[in-house]
């Protein structure tokens, strides 16, 4: 026991020393002692990550959606294109608009009371098909999720100021599903993946149309939440579009080749960069999807098709679960159809078990053993206090 405690102490001292000589932005990860469970405990400025009541991501249950007839269509500038930099941050793949850009894409309408200026894209994905997206629908995680962020340009000057303020940020969630083809705009991003393999690597992307990246739907779900990365600021109006965009298996393989570390020390794959689901805490999730249908005599239609689950993502969630039972083998230098093997079909009850297990927060190595986790956390507070 003492030897294990000694090892934990050494690891902790190395982490604290690393933090002292770098920045918090470089320190955090999606697992281990720098993972989501510790974001708000070790850095006081991120305390909302552990104490917040309007945190993201969440699981969206179709039966609990509230239809709001006053929700407007979401509007994004159609004929404007942007340029920026796609970078491997070591935690995610992030696209940011060039700071000196004179071309700004505005986001308005929908649930938004103000105009927002598009600023950045975060790409989340899993190393297997049954995980990847941060938000989930009826307990189902998509293979990936692309999040578009913009700041409130009417009240604030930039993203840094807006992220701390009410109504400061809009987050648009695009669920990513595996398909046969992908849009030209998504291809502009995926074609550069080989240039951002390692942490710190980046590449320029020119003439990206944000409007063309979106799926062809006006339906969405919306709620008040937070950023899904530190410091978990509760300033985000989330809009989850009710239709996925598609990525091919080959492009997804290329994405899964990206690494968390440098070329000299690659560390682990960049994937599985999703924060665990957060409690809803009685928040309302509104939608412009009209579940109530009537016939020509203005009488309600009592039909299974009009259940909420059949209107969210076109009732394809069950089908998606079946598709995700295809297990991906490790990616080799040459991609072929032989890289895929079919697993045996699982029962519906197993699906339920799998979906419920994905809802549980990720367990870091320090928390797997409650004794050592508690001791490590206590020592961590002491060392951080001394450093301050």
From TrEMBL:
Residues 1-22 form the signal peptide. GO terms for biological process: one-carbon metabolic process. Pfam families: Carb_anhydrase. Residues 340-355 have a biased composition (Acidic residues). InterPro entries: Alpha_CARP_X/XI (IPR041878), CA_dom (IPR001148), CA_dom_sf (IPR036398), Carbonic_anhydrase_a-class (IPR023561). Belongs to the alpha-carbonic anhydrase family. The keyword Signal applies. This is Alpha-carbonic anhydrase domain-containing protein. It comes from the Eukaryota. The chain crosses the membrane at residues 370-387. PANTHER family: CARBONIC ANHYDRASE, CARBONIC ANHYDRASE-RELATED PROTEIN A, ISOFORM B.
């Amino acid at each position: 026991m003492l030897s294990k405690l000694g090892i934990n102490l050494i690891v902790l001292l190395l982490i604290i020393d690393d933090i002292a000589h770098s920045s918090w932005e470089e320190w955090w990860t999606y697992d281990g002692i720098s993972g989501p469970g510790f974001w708000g405990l070790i850095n006081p400025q991120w305390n909302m990550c552990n104490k917040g009541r309007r945190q993201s991501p969440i699981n969206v249950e179709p039966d609990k959606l509230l239809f709001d007839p006053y929700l407007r269509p979401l509007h994004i500038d159609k004929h404007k294109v942007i340029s920026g930099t796609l970078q491997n941050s070591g935690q995610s793949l992030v696209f940011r608009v060039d700071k000196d850009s004179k071309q700004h894409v505005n986001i308005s309408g929908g649930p938004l009371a103000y105009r927002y200026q598009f600023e950045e894209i975060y790409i989340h994905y899993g190393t297997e098909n049954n995980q990847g997206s941060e938000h989930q629908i009826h307990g189902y995680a998509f293979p990936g999720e692309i999040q578009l962020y913009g700041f409130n340009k009417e009240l604030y000057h930039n993203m840094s100021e807006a992220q701390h303020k009410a109504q400061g940020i809009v987050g648009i969630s695009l669920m990513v599903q595996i398909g046969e083809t992908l849009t030209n705009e998504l291809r502009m991003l995926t074609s550069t993946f080989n240039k951002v393999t390692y942490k710190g690597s980046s590449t320029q992307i020119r003439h990206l149309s944000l409007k063309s990246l979106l799926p062809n739907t006006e339906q969405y779900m919306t709620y008040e939440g937070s950023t899904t990365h530190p410091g978990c600021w509760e300033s985000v109006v989330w809009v989850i579009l009710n239709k996925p965009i598609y990525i091919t298996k080959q492009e997804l393989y290329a994405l899964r080749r990206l690494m968390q570390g440098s070329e000299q020390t690659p560390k682990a794959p960049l994937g599985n960069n999703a924060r665990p689901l957060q409690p809803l805490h009685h928040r309302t999730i509104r939608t412009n999807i009209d579940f109530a249908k009537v016939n020509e005599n203005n009488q309600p239609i009592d039909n299974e098709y009009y259940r909420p689950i059949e209107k969210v993502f076109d009732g394809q969630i069950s089908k998606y679960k079946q598709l995700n039972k295809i297990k991906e083998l490790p990616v080799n230098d040459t991609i072929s159809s032989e890289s895929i093997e079919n697993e045996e079909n699982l029962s519906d009850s197993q699906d339920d078990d799998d979906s419920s297990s994905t809802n549980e927060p990720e367990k870091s190595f320090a928390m797997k053993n409650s004794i050592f986790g508690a001791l490590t956390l206590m020592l961590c507070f002491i060392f951080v206090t001394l450093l301050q």
